[in-house]
Amino acid sequence: MRKVSLKDIAQKAQVSTALVSYVLNGKEKESRVGEEMAAKIRQIAQELNYQPNYLAQSLRSGKTQTIGLILADISNPFFANVARIVEDEAKRNGYTVIIGSSDENANKSKDLLDVLIKRQVDGFIIVSCEDSDEQVQELVDKHIPFVLLDRYFPAIATDFISTDHYEAAFEGGKHLITNGYQRIGMIAYESGMFHMDERIRGYQNALNDSRIPFREEWLKKVRFTYIEQEVKPAIDELISATEPVDALIFATYGLAINGLKYINELRLNVPDDLAIVSFGQAEAFDLYYCPITYLRQPIGLLGQTAVKLLVEKMDSTNKEPTQILMKAELVARESSKSKMSQ
Q1: Which domains, and CATH codes, for the chain?
Q2: pLDDT greater than 70 at residue 62
Q3: 130, 192 in Cβ contact below 8 A?
Q4: CA 193, CA 197: separation in Å to the nearest integer?
């Protein structure tokens, strides 16, 4: 079956091919095409089932109207929701999104970048993983437009949009202290990533600010690839110490889910035996027998702003880096209720 061309539409509408091109490329106002004629051309294009030749368009414009979105872990509901927001916002701006997940692996991240660069995406939105700072620097050096989302490298001057991870962890710690908890532990990832360091720093400073001396044994770090195996002994150590912790902050959603499963196995009661605060948000926190207090990151704003920044950057390569930190909201639930009310 022969593919419908602009010429076919032009003949049926009895106008020039150039005029049809203006309308179908959304430039009818610039070309002073009347609304009635523009509507007629679109109607004919729809009736003839016209499919634009995107390859030809990209060759003419030098743009493919595609954005590469590289996530750290697509199985995490936070990143899955970010992907949906980015897709919706990109579509509103005339872009299609190609999504890949690095699974917190720098080699996989590099492979994804290479493939998408060869696919000639116009720009990237990247949730970085550990040891990917050289990849980010390479994008800077090659003048490839990109925006870092939720994780960034302070030593590299880049556009980024992120939650204020320090402030969020600080608020989570202060919330527990205000509610009467004094021996507060944290389970985080063994990671050199700045956002994880900031979450740990915020937790420690919340204790120091309330004159509770931080103890090294209260902070446990586990490796991403060994969460299930390492969360259990971490919790065992925290609750079997001479002075066991009475509250626990999980630095990520994945850590919280694995930790809560084990807490259930131990038949510990939340919050009577152990209060819980976690980063991340998901239905699982609502479905737990004791709804979990969590730090809600502004997913909608993060995703929308990342697209906005990238579109601006792609249109103006000389633009100075824009760096934005957004506040997380502490959603207080039963898992961290005041000791006075227990």
Answers
A1: 6-52 (1.10.260.40), 64-163+299-327 (3.40.50.2300), 165-297+330-341 (3.40.50.2300)
A2: no
A3: yes
A4: 6
